[in-house]
Amino acid sequence: MSGSGAAPGPGSGSSPAACRFAHYFVLCGIDADSGLEPDELAVLYQWLEADRHGKSQDAANTTSGENFDQSPLRRTFKSKVLAHYPQNIEWNPFDQDAVNMLCMPKGLSFRTQTDNKDPQFHSFIITREDGSRTYGFVLTFYEEVTSKQICTAMQTLYQMHNAEHYSSIYASSSCSMDSLASSLDEGDTTSLLKLQRYNSYDISRDTLYVSKSICLITPLPFMQACKKFLIQLYKAVTSQQPPPLPLESYIHNILYEVPLPPPGRSLKFYGVYEPVICQRPGPNELPLSDYPLREAFELLGLENLVQVFTCVLLEMQILLYSQDYQRLMTVAEGITTLLFPFQWQHVYVPILPASLLHFLDAPVPYLMGLQSKEGTDRSKLELPQEANLCFVDIDNHFIELPEEFPQFPNKVDFIQELSEVLLQFGIPPEGSLHCSESATKLKNLVLKDLVNDKKNGNVSANSISMYELLKGNETIARLQALAKRTGVTVEKTDLSAPLGEKEKDLKLQCEEAELRDYQLNVQLREVFANRFTQMFADYEAFVIQTAQDMESWLTNREQMQNFDKASFLSDQPEPYLPFLSRFIETQMFATFIDNKIMSQWEEKDPLLRVFDSRIEKIRLYNVRAPTLRTSIYQKCSTLKEAAQSIEQRLMKMDHTAIHPHLLDMKIGQGKYEQGFFPKLQSDVLATGPTNNNRWVSRSATAQRRKERLRQRSEHIGLDNDLREKYMQEARSLGKNLRQPKLSDLSPAVIAQTNWKFVEGLLKECRMKTKRMLVEKMGHEAVELGHGEANITGLEENTLIASLCDLLERIWSHGLQVKQGKSALWSHLIQFQDREEKQEHLAESPVALGPERRKSDCGVMLPTLRVSLIQDMRHIQNMSEIKTDVGRARAWIRLSLEKKLLSQHLKQLLSNQPLTKKLYKRYAFLRCEEEREQFLYHLLSLNAVDYFCFTSVFTTIMIPYRSVIIPIKKLSNAITTSNPWICVSGELGDTGVMQIPKNLLEMTFECQNLGKLTTVQIGHDNSGLLAKWLVDCVMVRNEITGHTYRFPCGRWLGKGIDDGSLERILIGELMTSVADEDLVKQCRTPPQQKSPTTARRLSITSLTGKTAKPSAGQIQEGIGEAVNNIVKHFHKPEKERGSLTLLLCGENGLVAALEQVFHHGFKSARIFHKNVFIWDFIERAVAYFETTDQILDSEDDVLIQKSSCKTFCHYVNAINTAPRNIGKDGKFQIFVCLGTRDRLLPQWIPLLAECPAITRMYEESALLRDRMTVNSLIRILQTIQDFTIVLEGSLIKGVDV
């Protein structure tokens, strides 16, 4: 887990020690007895590296064995934990290997008197199995080596090294590149002499120094206080006078006598020379965070930091890269502390020791920090997977972001608000590389030393020192020039005289600077927290709480949806959606919501408590909740209060710890020797005082409460492991991997770690596919009204993007050699190369696939061949996609849409020699059983229809193929006239295309039309055999294989049927190729229901056998059709299907109204001529145009008149349109226009009252029943509130 540890410290042990400020004091360095041991971990690391690059291990030692071709002073040697006090604490056991590795991540390093030996401070973090953390703070300094044997060993190593490298050193003037790089890095002048000096150590001439670390391990991250304490210890060791008390007194004091400050209070305790102050936020403030955000912002710059922050929120893989460990910690802790109220749930290793580099293989989200080698640049860094990697080069102010990266909501305003805060504190928002604390390498400390003893600075100890030191300073130079001009003489000694006062001054400023850092920290964090408070102000409304008790909730955790994502998103402002839709899928959001649900039964998670209280506050200020949902940027209003509360705490100390005092020590031990850390007396440091402590009793009650809580949670929480298992799918993976076990790194352990990864990936695949299915199926079940189910386009996109990401992670797990940024695409390319070579060898003419024609209905679309390579070629031909990651994603989307993803990947992996060549034995793709299960999970996605390719790549050119299928028994197969066709889809239409004569099939290419909706088909009625009876038109997208059927079942021709020369056909999607077997089994394809217009044939029916629906069925049909339109508009815009289908499709409004008008219609043939509804409408027009009826009241007359007028106007416009549409087609346009312009409810009563009705309708007809007509009008009025936009093809050429 992450978060900044404001949770009551991880200690929930039974002794008051749980409330101690520090748990351990540790000393690491060289073990004089075991002498110089090369760092085995570093050697293992080279072995792993060599293995990763596929070299042999022996080669590793000679070529990349970084330890041996470097000069001995640059090599890493094994460090040891020399001492730690106390020996152990039960609830926070001392992990010797981890602490040693993190105190000295590079092992021991040696220097001579010519090198820079400034002390270095860094911190680290250890995350335990249960996600709780401990913090370590380390000061590393150099101590002279007194052991003769070690000096001799170093000399021997040099002689060997020089013998090997002699020729290369003197042959080229630049000497070995390695030492060149490192000397450049030290920032010294690079004279050849110096380089040669670097490459030598002479026992008679040089003094050898070795690194040593002092470290405090604490439950809470009090970085500033620990740093001050350690620096004072270090000064006590290096100053000329011995410290006031033996060092044991101070260490004993901080370990046993300094309590943790209670929440909301400050504490003062004593270092060697001056007091140290720390403070802890109160229960309703943001949790403790002591890492200066100022530095993080200076190091990265505001814009970059917000981008990295967004990557962390979306749980990508984040790799921080810097030479300085403290920078890695500062940025990692800084960014995770800004996540409030959320917490990072995955692998979190801010300092990744060199020996753990194989952790970068982890196919899970991680936040890791890698120390960059001196002089290596980013290009040399071989990372196993980069498709989803955010790479942060801290030292060079540079970040690389993953592709397809959504921006943080209101990013511009957000950055503006943050930069205002930064500028108030004098920090440039673009960041500055030079003013960060680590860059100055504890300059302050060194400066103070200069002042104190004038020895450490290597400056002669006379009064001139300060002046000489500042000679190069521009400001001083300008002052001197000014002084000369004004005739003032500057005494050389003047500068050093008032140093005493200056130092006092400096001290105040230092406190001041610290206060400003605290205030800046809290203000920046308030701005971030405020964003989330605004964004999730009403999150509680969408939490789904179904379980009655905790046990049943935990048991069914995996099956249950705990947050109503779709409703939440539909409430959000449009610009937020790309980010939010992905964020609410993350583990950190899931855990946040889980914590919310758990809070019914347990004490609230501290972060959640603070967050909820903030939302309450907002609610009080904004009484009307809806204002929370605006996308208007609302700035943070609590900055002043936050800064003040910190200032008050720091001004007035709430608690002061016991002063360090003399301990009961043996005389003569712990003797002071300047420059050397004394051997501490362990017996006095092993245990604390018995019970002379003010704060023991106070903490006892807190302790008892914690105990109770712990027992209760053990009691309720089933078995803890079980609970973990239920609570988080992904966390269970993260739990074992969050902090790698730092000690044992045998290949067996590595294999076991990888096995956990394999299991984790499989589980994640199961969860993701299940989620995608549930979403789709859920939506399909709900929408019984019409057949086109669609999960929000947005949510679908998010789920598919996360599936793409999962596949990339699976394909990059256990790669032998990385090629290109996308592991999946590079595997596909290699597969393609092999297949194409074999194709060339075979050159088989059959490759095109059999163009089977279905015999039973004459013309049919030839089947598309299923081919992985062909799908790849489609993607390679898309000039819009520029990167491999993009190509891989497009290919996944296409395969998913074609329902071939599982089949394609199976084919890809069936080439075993290739898989073996590309992957190591432990890789996921080489675990047979898991791989099969994985493909099986993907196969389940074939149960639903995705349009994730068509709907995303909207501008590409797509080849289509169309076939016209006539009814041959009753008409000629081919017409003599000139037929034409126009295909329309959700994204556009083809325009009118002439069909080549005597051909029923044609292919054409045009820009992606999206899902197809209508086909207009017609001809010019020329020639002898102009009449044409068309059964249906089929159109197929040749890339995705989606086939649409546009049923017709009517004649095209003058003087037959309704005399139509063109028809508008409404499409329906056919079952896909993959389902063709089903089709074969049931001979009549499921989708070929009676053609859409079969009902209309009931009057002019070709066979006359269709049964007429009853009045009740007709009224039901109308209700259903209107209902579907209302439902359509109640959906979020992105989810709506095709409105054309709801108006003109099989159960659409036009068909339903047609039934109403057909009911009781006298359909006898008058003189062998069919009568149509349109004839009735035309008679009505003729009647209205010739009569001016007399009505009772004036108002009614006007209304009636205007209705009659518009009615006549519309009908005439439809009749005079330059289109050869038949009578039924005209009725369709009439209904569509009437619906669009909200006129139907006015027209229906006119028609019902028109005299022609008595001649043309039976007495029992629905239209002649006053009640029915009124209810019909009422039903139609319900769709008047909606803005209906008609597809162009429906009303082309009608001018109203």
TrEMBL record:
Subcellular localization(s) per the UniProt record: Membrane
Pfam families: dDENN, DENN, PLAT, RUN, uDENN
Chief location category: membrane
Extent of Polar residues compositional bias: 1084-1104
One of the record's GO molecular function terms: small GTPase binding
Annotated region described as Disordered, given as residue ranges: 1083-1112
GO CC annotations, alphabetized: membrane
Keywords: Guanine-nucleotide releasing factor, Membrane, Phosphoprotein, Repeat
Gene3D superfamilies membership: 1.20.58.900, 3.30.450.200, 3.40.50.11500, PLAT/LH2 domain (2.60.60.20)
InterPro entries, A to Z: cDENN_dom, dDENN_dom, DEN5A/B, DENN_C, PLAT/LH2_dom, PLAT/LH2_dom_sf, PLAT_RAB6IP1, RUN1_DENND5B
UniProt keyword annotation of Ribonucleoprotein present: no
Domain UDENN: 61-603
Sequence ranges assigned to domain RUN in this UniProt record: 794-954, 1140-1289
Domain PLAT residue range list: 958-1066
Family per record: Belongs to the RAB6IP1 family.
Name of the protein in question: DENN domain containing 5B
Organism: Equus asinus
Gene that encodes the chain: DENND5B
